[in-house]
Every structure is written in C-alpha cells, then in structure tokens.
Amino acid sequence: MAHKPSIPKGTRDFNPEQVAKRNYIFETIQESFETFGFQPIETPSFENSETLMGKYGEEGDRLIFKILNSGDFLAKVNNTLYASKDSQKITTTISEKALRYDLTVPFARYVVQHQNDIEFPFKRYQMQPVWRADRPQKGRFREFYQCDADVVGSTSLWQEVEFIQLYDRVFTALKLPGVTIKINNRKLLSGIAEIIGASDKLIDFTVALDKLDKIGPEKVKAEMISKGILETSIAKLQPLFELSGDFNAQITALESILAQSEIGKAGIAELTFIHKAISELELETAALKLDVTLARGLNYYTGAIFEVAAPEGVQMGSIGGGGRYDDLTGIFGLKNMSGVGISFGLDRIYLVLEELNLFPETVSKTIDVLFINFGDAEALFSLKAIKQLRLQGIYAELYPDAAKMKKQMNHANKRNIPYVVLVGTEELTQNTFTLKNMKSGEQENLSLNSLIQKVKA
Amino acid sequence: MAHKPSIPKGTRDFNPEQVAKRNYIFETIQESFETFGFQPIETPSFENSETLMGKYGEEGDRLIFKILNSGDFLAKVNNTLYASKDSQKITTTISEKALRYDLTVPFARYVVQHQNDIEFPFKRYQMQPVWRADRPQKGRFREFYQCDADVVGSTSLWQEVEFIQLYDRVFTALKLPGVTIKINNRKLLSGIAEIIGASDKLIDFTVALDKLDKIGPEKVKAEMISKGILETSIAKLQPLFELSGDFNAQITALESILAQSEIGKAGIAELTFIHKAISELELETAALKLDVTLARGLNYYTGAIFEVAAPEGVQMGSIGGGGRYDDLTGIFGLKNMSGVGISFGLDRIYLVLEELNLFPETVSKTIDVLFINFGDAEALFSLKAIKQLRLQGIYAELYPDAAKMKKQMNHANKRNIPYVVLVGTEELTQNTFTLKNMKSGEQENLSLNSLIQKVKA
C-alpha cells in the first residue's frame, strides 16, 4: 500500500485528548442516569435485518448499513431474482444482518425478548454507537453515539417531570448554562388537526408546522394548502401563529383554540401538570419552554415530545430529544407497554462544549511523572520506585530507552508531564531521587517516601 | 411480527447486572493502563476494506464482516463479472467497508495516518468491540471486546518487563490469583528452526510445536515430518521435548541447543534480561513461565510472545496474549517502527470470574432508596426531597404510579432496593419521612437531613 491509509467518510479517529473529553461527557451523563435510578443494558451492534427494517420509514431503511452474508452469499439468490439485478430486492437475500440505526428499536426488541426477566416499570439507559449511511456534515456522522434513558411499563406523567429534571441536571453538571428544553404534546397536535378538520392529514400538518421557525407562517400555510388542507381550516390556525407570552399565557390561548377537542384538552392537561410540577421543583440552569411547532420526525410519539436546544448563539441542531410512545413494543407483539424516554446527542454536545471552551482543563490527564532512563542499572532501580508510586495511585513511567537526556526531556515537555525524576549514579548509590518540576524548573533530591508525598500533593 | 424477536447468533444482550460486571473488569484494566502511562484512542467500527483485507491470512479475510455499499450497489458490477456469480470476486465491488477484526491493524493504520501528530514512543490503549464471523462456541463470540495496550517507537526490552508487570497488576486487582504469564521469543524459535535446517519451514515448524501440550511429542514429530522436515533434524530437537526445571534451568538447556545460532542466542539474551528484571521487581500474584512451544497464530511477532493462562482447574483458552512486532506499520508504508503490546480477553476473563465466583457483591448497584407513591401531592413533596438526596450523591427514585402499597413494596424487594421511604398525609403535614430498612424491617420517622445522613451511612 503506497498511499497513506484513511478511514471511511463520516467516521472518525479519536486521539487521547478527544477520548478524554468524550469520556467526561459520558461519565457526567452516566452519573446522572444512575442517580435517577436508570440501569445500563447493552445490545449487539448488529441486529437481524427484520428487527430494524420498516421501523424508520423508507428513508430510514435506505440509511441502514447492511452486512453481507458470509461465504458464497450469491448461491442463495435464485436465477430469476439474480437476472433482475435489482439491488434492493437482492439485498434481503444476501444480507440478513444490519448495523443498529438507533437505540430505541433495539430496546423495544430487548424488552419483548426478555419480558419475563424484567421487573416493570423498567428504567434503563444505554450509551452505544449507532450507524447511519447519511450524508456527513457538521455535527452529523455515519458513526455516532446515542445516550438514551427510557422507562417502560408506566403511563405516569411524573416520568416526564423526571426527564426534564434529568436534562437540567446533566447540562448543569456540564456547566453549560442557557439550554432550552422545548416541550410539546402529540395530543395537542392531534387536537389542532381535529379542530381544522385535517385529522387524516396529521403527519403532513405537523411536518409543515414544524418548519414555522425556519420558513415563517406564510410558507407554512402554503405547504399545508399544497397538501390538501383547506384554506378555511388554516384560517382557524391564526391564533396558533400568534402565540406569545409565557407558558401559562400560551396554555390559556390553546385552551380557547382547543375547547371543542377532547384529545386536545387531554394534551393541555398533561402539559399543565408537567409545567406546574417543574415550577414547584425548580430547574437549576435550563429553561422549560412550550413549543407547539415541535413534532420531531419520528411518528411513534403519542404524548409528550421533548427537544433540547443549545444556548443561544451556538449554531447547532438539537442536542437532545425524546418523548412518550404508547405502543413501541407493539411492533414486536407486546401490547400496552407505554414508554417514555430521552436521548443525549454526545457528538453535538461535544462540539458545543468545544465551541464555548467549556471542557475542564484537567480533563485530559497525562502521567504525573516520567523517570529519565540513564541505563539498565538505573532503569531497574527506577522501576522498583515506579512500582511503589503506582501502588499509591500515581501515574508514572520510565522512558524506555537510555536516549540522550535532551530527547527525554523534550518528550516530557511535549506530553505536558508535570514532573520528571532523574536517577543517575549518585542517586543510585544514595538511594535517592532527583525530582524536577517541569513548570518551575525547581529540582530537589528526595527519598522515595518524600517523592511520593510531593508528587501526590 | 408474530414470533418473539431474537438476535443474531454469536451476539449477546447484556442486562444491568452483566453490564455492571463487565464495567468492573473494564475499569480495573483501564485504571492499570492509565497508571502505567497508556493513553486511550478510539478508531471507527468499520474501516475501508483495503485496510483490513490481507492482514489476517486467508482464514481471517473470510471471517471479516463486510458491509454492503448503499444505494444501487449492483449497478457498479460490470456484466462479465456479474455473469460469473462469483461471490468472492463480486464482494470487492459491492462492499467497500468492513467491520474491525481486531484492534492491532486499525492501530497500525492510526499510527501511520497520524504519525506527524504523535509524540513517540507512543503508549496507547484501546478497549473496543471487534467482530468475527467465526463459529460461536463457549468463550467465542461474533461480537466481543478487546482491551489492548501497545507501545510503538522503541525497541527497549523494558517494555516487555512493564507489560508483564501490567498483567500481574490487573489480575491482582481483579483478585484472580494463580494466572500464568507464558513467555517465549520468536528469535528462539527461529534459532531452533535454523539449527535443524528448517528455516524455510519456520511457520510449519512453530504451528506443529505449538501443539506439544495438546497432542504430545510423537504426534508433533509426525506432523513435522509430514511437512517435509527431516527426521534427522527432528532428532536434534529431542532435548527440547525434555525441557524441565525452572526458568534458569530451561535457559541453560536452550543455550546448549542454540550455541551455534546467532538469532537463537539473541532470543535467549532477551528472555534472560526480561526474566532477571522480573525476578528483581517481583510479581504480586502471577507467575512468569517460559514456554518454548508458544507461537500464537499471528505471524507478525518478531521478538517476545506472551500468553496468559487462567488459573489451573478453569477450562478456558488464553485470557490474554501479545508480543513484539518489529514491522507492524510497514504494511501501511511506515518502516522501522517497532511495537510491542498485550491484549486482555474481556469476555473470557468475565467467564473465569463468574466460574470462580470472584465478582464483588457490590458490583451491581441498584438505587439506594425508593419513595412510595401515595398520590400527586405526596409525589411532588417526595420529588422535592429526592432532588436533595440526589444532590448528595444518593441514588433515589419515586415509584411512578400511585399503585397499591403491596405492589410498590414488591417492586422494591425484587430490585433489592435497601431502603424505602413512605410519605403519607401525616408525613406531608409534619414535613417528615418514614424510612423503612427493607432487610431488617425497621421503620423510623425522620427529618430530611436525618434521612440523608441515614441513607448515606
């Protein structure tokens, strides 16, 4: 191989500093998940294709990475099918496994498969990579991590309340102030569609409404008309386009719009319950905001819908989202299992923290002390000391070769190692260690015990 | 989907207890890696096929999971090739990416690709899953984790010494006594092959010798003869089959066998250096043992070869292995970059700890306290308290529904939750909490502060 090797587009290598920063985010999220009573599960990277296909719409099916069967996979393709040279049709015969597209469908599969071993309500979290054959762009990768927490087996709205607290706790712990937790409710959207006589066009309606922020009310109305929603119906929506004020003021306006819709009123009642509880419990740093245009792409939400926006001024898509789905496990044959969950977008949170320079300085840890190598006798003496340092929790290593002093010191500098220990003939004879502080340049001759105390402090 | 969903063979779901146990092993290994100065990197789950193919032999190529190209992948197959219906030949046209087969080749690719940003010697560790389309059996899966630590950029034998110490530290920390670290040296094997005039048959020779433990000397000799190694040559090996005594005694015997081989003597010198250093530094719980039959499958080792055996009495393949490879990055065009590394077999270590019942009891943590739900007013009051508990690092949650008391208590029992808090009308009025110890059955009425102190202790 003559040319420099590379990696597939949309994928990334992570160097030690990047891994440390990512782990900082993972650990912060994980700590909050566990404090809230969520327990970890893990599922395989690939699933049987039938588990994933048809669960994410046509677009989703296309973006799922398929794994080629092993061996002579074409032998199983019959001649008629083979003659068609139809990639899509032949795929199902030559590929029986596919890479996970998200964590929600594998979780639903897990719950159904292990339902007899699970104690419900089941609070689980999962932090694993997912893969999508999407066109890569800023903040969008072909391999990326999702961090999900879900509860299944209860319809209680207290869980929605808890998830809002959980978002608040994580972003507070990450010292990322000013995030907005947007909330909506699918029942409210259904109510509005009902009122304007477009219940059969709920999806078209919500997809159009979702764009209000981006394209403005006139274009949204035009899109609705193009989808066959009557102009007279859309006229009834005018108050919706003019919603303003705080949470309670918006709820009051919605109450009058939805006075004739049972499902709409149910949505309002849920939103009111959640908002009241959060007002009483108080958030630390995040803000809860009603956003009636919020629909999110996935059609399985049946109640609350969440989306988290980065602080104002940061150009970034949503950094989290979720909602309630009353029948997720139904696709695998288990009915009446309500679930609600949220997701954290690790990769986007990373980009936001990087842009705002919010990673703690101490996050990327190198070793505490490097022992300079002056030859085999000194090296052995040093390794005996290093063994003791390591037992005390100090990160320490010996420069592997008896290279020139300058080279070894440069190595320590380039790796930002705070201390260097010099063991020459004199130290070897006297059983001492010369400790050099790489920042101040200060040098001291110390016993092993003093060395340990000094480096630990 | 009518039938119960399942997962592909050779893959696994992990429930909360299993994840906790696996994380216990990961964290123990990681802590040791970092204490020894290794830094983490991560590489993508899939690589360009050309990066992986041809690096693991024919068998390896066959076992690599290939990913189907997106879109109309068959359009790129020309008619002649398509008419052949040759799965193997068509694969390279319809699949350009493949799942990682191990962590070593991606690491070599990483080093070459990022060589200008790396400060050498570079000590990296990597703990990520790998995938192999192997036939599943006990301790062998299609998706499993590898935990690797390697150093590149130095030929110093002190690194071999450090890796032996690292193995010892990890298995000591896991409280798994009695593991054997077997060591050999490729140069020693080359020397023996040279002495018996079979240098051109080094692979056949080592593959046969590797089976000595399993099939005995006569069958090993028969296999060597079948591979074209002369009987007179094999006769010279007799002392090898009779090696006995401790490390030094075996070295003395090998010195006489290899007196005429420069490369063989170099191997002996390396082994002696490493053994002497380890004797001086002392291992905590593991034993270092010379095993001249140890070759390991991979042909890139050029110096030391390691393999770790589980304690006697546990039926399990090797739980770790590694060695020195003087030219790993050569396959990607970067010459003269010596590397040495070791790997921990997470899944097998798990099975060993499980079999010997060595997981700490505290490893699988549930929540500390469950608040019983008596209705909305009590729930809100409880959540205010729970917020304070969580800020104090206590894992706490509210039962989501105001279900029957018995059902909620059963839930606490099934999850082994140690404490339950009861907040009824009385507690609500008096601003107190009734704490029940689920083990002793003892109940106390406490203030919020006392509750926190009690649960924390």
From TrEMBL, chains A, B:
It is an enzyme of class 6 (ligase). It is found in: Cytoplasm. It comes from the Bacteria. InterPro entries: aa-tRNA-synth_II, aa-tRNA-synth_II/BPL/LPL, Anticodon-bd, Anticodon-bd_dom_sf, His-tRNA-ligase, HisRS-like_core, HisRS/HisZ, HisRS_anticodon. Transmembrane segments: none annotated. Its main location: cytoplasm. It catalyses: tRNA(His) + L-histidine + ATP = L-histidyl-tRNA(His) + AMP + diphosphate + H(+). Residues 1-400 form the Aminoacyl-transfer RNA synthetases class-II family profile domain. GO terms for molecular function: histidine-tRNA ligase activity. It holds the Pfam family tRNA-synt_His. Keywords: Aminoacyl-tRNA synthetase, ATP-binding, Cytoplasm, Ligase, Nucleotide-binding, Protein biosynthesis. The keyword Aminoacyl-tRNA synthetase applies. Homodimer. NCBIfam families: hisS. Belongs to the class-II aminoacyl-tRNA synthetase family. This is Histidine--tRNA ligase. It comes from Bizionia sediminis. The lineage of its organism: Bacteria, Pseudomonadati, Bacteroidota, Flavobacteriia, Flavobacteriales.
